[in-house]
């Protein structure tokens, strides 16, 4: 496959060659667990790692993604890498690097939701609160015997001469 703009030829002559190379990268991340004899992935896939494996730079992969005939293949590989990074968030292992990568390479963002309640003054709420405070204070004073039932809280407790 040659470059559409007369540049150097593409490294891969067909879409199938590119697919095979990408699959080889993902397979290279799998190793056999000696205990279970199952193939497990020991490290996360990365765009840079993919580039190293197939002989392109990270920017080269991004360039391939812009080509019509290769867009879907590269996009699928990048989605697989992003899915692995997302899964790593739930692995229980430290994931600050994964978060950094998702934010800086994949467009993820932190979202802050602000809920604005109506903050108009409600005098009725204040009056109810004042009544509750007065009653609580009155009950405390009654407990210590300083206030007779006949006295009102808003009248002075200590009478002036």
Low-confidence parts, pLDDT < 50 over ≥5 residues? none
Cα-atom radius of gyration: 35 Å
Order of helices and strands: HEEHHHHH
- Give the overall shape: elongated
Number of helices: 6
Average pLDDT works out at 80
Largest sheet: 2 strands, antiparallel
Question: What's the N-to-C terminus distance?
Answer: 108 Å
Count of folded domains? 2
Question: What is the helical fraction, as a range of percent?
Answer: 40-55%
Give the strand order, joined by hyphens, for the main sheet: 1-2
| Beta-strand residue percentage | under 5%
Structural class: mainly alpha
Number of strands: 2
Give descriptors for this structure:
single chain; 161 residues; mainly alpha; 2 domains; two-stranded antiparallel ribbon; 2 strands
How would you describe the overall organization of this protein?
The protein is 51% helix and 4% strand. It has 161 residues and is mostly helical. It folds into 2 domains: 15-105, no CATH class; 124-161. A two-stranded antiparallel ribbon has the order 1-2. The radius of gyration is 35 Å and the shape is elongated. The relative contact order is 0.07. The model has no long low-confidence stretch (mean pLDDT 80).
């Amino acid at each position: 496959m040659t470059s559409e703009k007369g540049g150097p030829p593409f490294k891969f002559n067909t879409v199938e060659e590119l697919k095979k190379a990408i699959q080889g990268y993902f397979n290279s991340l799998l190793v056999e667990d000696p205990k279970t004899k199952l193939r497990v992935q020991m490290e996360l896939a990365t765009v840079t790692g993919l580039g190293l494996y197939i002989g392109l730079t990270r920017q080269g992969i991004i360039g391939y993604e812009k080509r019509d005939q290769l867009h879907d293949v590269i996009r699928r590989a990048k989605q697989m890498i992003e899915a692995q990074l997302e899964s790593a968030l739930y692995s229980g292992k430290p994931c600050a690097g994964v978060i950094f990568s998702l934010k800086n390479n994949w467009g993820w963002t932190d979202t802050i939701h602000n809920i604005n309640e109506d903050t108009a003054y409600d005098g009725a709420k204040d009056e109810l609160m004042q009544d509750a405070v007065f009653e609580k204070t009155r009950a405390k004073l009654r407990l210590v015997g300083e206030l007779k039932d006949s006295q009102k809280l808003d009248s002075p407790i200590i009478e002036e001469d």
